[in-house]
Design brief:
Layout lengths: L33 E4 L4 H14 L5 E4 L16 E3 L4 H7 L2 E4 L4 H9 L3 E4 L16 E4 L2 H10 L18 H6 L4
Parallel strand pairs: 1-2, 1-4, 2-3, 4-5, 5-6
Helix pairs in contact: 1-4, 2-3
């Protein structure tokens, strides 16, 4: 028994820790266009990729499909949309705005870089995202909402956000372990 669970039911795991690295201030980074990040659900990605392509105006569009989905699964004008090979983190840092279909780690990465996010969510599904109320995140469900979000996107410089704050003294762990 460990922590009230049978030892055979537990697996050792290494904790994931986000370290808040100093980022360039947003105003010192040249931002280019709209980044569309794909998700696992092809139909959903196709929907918001198509909407973005139609309503981006004269802004450049870069598309990065989910790593498990081949780009050939999507229909888009290759003359209008650049297919990305760079890392998502690099693309997020260089983009004016990110359009995606979920509020996961890519959203956290965007917040860390001060890059606005438009999360196109299925209105029939429950969204458990805790970042939906962040000032850089706009959640939309319809094409009209996406149009409004693209028109009104404003980049806010976020230096030192608390999303990745880590107190290196680890006071909560010290308290739990009786070391405080």
């Amino acid at each position: 028994q460990r922590g009230g669970y049978a030892s055979t039911s537990l697996h050792d795991a290494e904790a994931l820790m986000y370290v808040r690295e100093p980022r360039q201030r947003r105003d010192s980074v040249v931002r280019r266009g709209i980044l569309v990040l794909g998700e696992l659900e092809v139909a959903s990605t196709q929907r918001y990729l198509s909407w973005t392509t139609v309503h981006a105006g004269n802004r450049a569009i870069t598309f990065k499909p989910h790593p498990l989905i081949d780009a050939d699964a999507f229909t888009f004008a290759r003359s209008r949309v650049r297919l990305a090979t760079e890392s998502a983190g690099q693309l997020i840092a260089e983009s004016e705005v990110v359009v995606l279909g979920a509020s996961g780690t890519a959203t956290l990465e965007a917040i860390n870089h001060g890059t606005p996010v438009i999360a196109v969510l299925n209105p029939r599904e429950l969204d458990l995202s805790v970042v939906g109320s962040h000032p850089l995140v706009r959640q939309v469900a319809t094409e009209l909402e996406l149009i409004a979000a693209l028109r009104n996107v404003t980049a806010r410089a976020q230096s030192g956000t608390d999303v990745f704050f880590l107190d290196t003294r680890l006071p909560r762990w010290r308290q739990i372990l009786g070391l405080a």
